[in-house]
Amino acid sequence: MRTNDFGGFSTRTCSVDLRFSRPEQFDHFVKAWTQRGSPKLDGHSTEERIELVSVGTTLEHELRHYHDFLLGYASLHNYWLRLQAIMNAAPIMDRMLRSREVDKLVFPVINWARLRPDERTAYLADALGDPSAASRTWDPAERPGLLRFKLLISMC
Question: What residue segments make up the domains of the chain, in order of their start?
Answer without folding.
Answer: 7-71, 74-154
